[in-house]
Design goal:
It is built from 10 helices and 16 strands. By secondary structure, the protein is α/β, with parallel strands linked by helices. The strands form 4 sheets. A 7-stranded mixed β-sheet has the order 12-11-10-13-14-15-16, with helices on both faces. The longest helix is centred in the N-terminal third of the chain and has 17 residues. The chain is globular and about 60 Å long.
Length: 383
């Protein structure tokens, strides 16, 4: 029996006789739904990761023009329709960090005004991640950047190995913080023939949890380096003691609080046996390599006969390639979250691990609404 309803003038009309406009509208939306992958970089070196990701996904890179005007303003022209689609913006961060940020913001805003359904930023290395704590009279710049990308139109971010996990709380939308450790561990197993005779080294006590995770997965020993030649950023005064207290002031001076003794770190020492072993230092970022070079010299003095450095993000700024080439470090292994082809030409010790596979799989799963748990299998909270 056909279902009936009342028509405009009170007469009964069978639903089987009404035009199915709503069905056709849904079908049209379904046929138009899809996703596009764009690169927000204006330099060729930075688009290599985007090309690898799109090749794995079997899609073409979206048509967009990103360039700098003669007055250094950033201009973005999207050359195809993105209405109602999921858009993924791949942005790798070169040395010119601020230009890359503007490219990302301008492209996200252009896609937002072009009626894109969702705008997901694929930012393997999130810039300003080291500035995630208050220092002196400065500011938490990483939180500012998180607010800026949300205002520009991003609705989701895929990143990798944030410098501090607390950064995820800076965002008002979901953040998938992927891990590079499975790829680096596989490199150790495949490319270091005698890795069973290795020991995982934490360059500082703050990196001990990451090193412990590597050691437990590889069934290797653990060593921790303690003490530094100079103060680290964790020991910087935050400025809250100024203006300086004066004991000669008159009137009420407040409570008499006990004075804290200043910290004084001892010379670098190694807790653990590295004699006759391969030393593998693990960290998330390698930028200023002076600390790594100093650590390598100490490990050599303690008897390590080979020294490797494993890091997710190889920023390698300034004279890093030259310092690595002249140091006791045998090999520096980083992923391609940050372009470093120029540095590799200057220093053959720098090796690259490709992580485009996990980034492409994350894009596919987010677009299809699948669970991301598979990408975090066997990943502990401290990894």
């Amino acid at each position: 029996m056909p279902i009936r309803r009342f028509g405009r003038h009170g007469s009964l009309v069978s639903l089987s006789q009404t035009p199915k406009l709503s069905y056709g509208y849904k079908k049209m939306n379904r046929s138009r739904s899809g996703y596009r992958v764009f690169s927000a970089n204006s330099t060729t070196a930075c688009t290599e990761l985007a090309k690898k990701i799109t090749e794995r996904l079997g899609v073409e890179l979206g048509k967009a023009l990103v360039h700098q005007e003669p007055n250094t303003e950033t201009r973005v022209d999207v050359k195809e329709s993105v209405r109602g689609q999921d858009i993924f913006i791949i942005q790798t961060i070169p040395r010119d960090v601020n230009t890359a940020i503007m490219e990302l913001l301008v492209m996200a805003y252009a896609l937002k005004t072009s009626c894109a359904k969702n705008i997901i930023g694929v930012i393997p290395y999130f810039p300003y991640s080291k500035q995630c704590k208050m220092r002196k009279r400065g500011s938490i710049v990483c939180k500012l950047l998180a607010s800026m990308v949300a205002k520009a139109g991003l609705t989701h971010i895929i990143t990798m190995d944030l410098h501090q996990k607390v950064i995820q709380g800076f965002f008002s939308f979901p953040v998938d913080n992927l891990r590079a450790s499975p790829f680096l561990i596989q490199y150790i197993q495949d490319e270091i023939p005698d890795y069973r005779n290795a020991v995982i080294v934490a360059k500082s006590p703050s990196a001990a949890k990451r090193a412990q995770s590597y050691a437990e997965r590889l069934r290797l020993g653990l060593a921790v380096m303690h003490g530094e030649a100079h103060h680290s950023e964790l020991d910087m005064a935050d400025g809250r003691h100024s203006p300086p207290l004066s004991r000669t002031t008159t009137g009420h001076t407040g409570l008499e609080l006990p004075l804290m003794m200043a910290k004084e770190k001892p010379p670098i020492t190694v807790v653990g046996d590295v004699g006759g072993r391969i030393a593998i230092i693990v960290d998330d970022i390698i930028d200023d390599v002076e600390d790594f070079v100093a650590a390598a010299e100490i490990l050599k003095e303690r008897g390590a006969y080979k020294i490797y450095i494993m890091a997710t993000h190889g920023l390698l700024s300034a004279d890093a390639p030259r310092l690595i080439e002249e140091s006791a470090i045998d090999e520096v292994v980083v992923t391609n979250t940050v372009p470093h082809e120029v540095q590799k030409l200057q220093c053959p010790k720098i090796k690259t691990v490709d992580v485009s596979m996990i980034l492409a799989e994350a894009i596919r799963r987010i677009h299809n609404g699948e669970s991301m748990a598979y990408l975090f299998r066997n990943i502990a909270l401290d990894d």
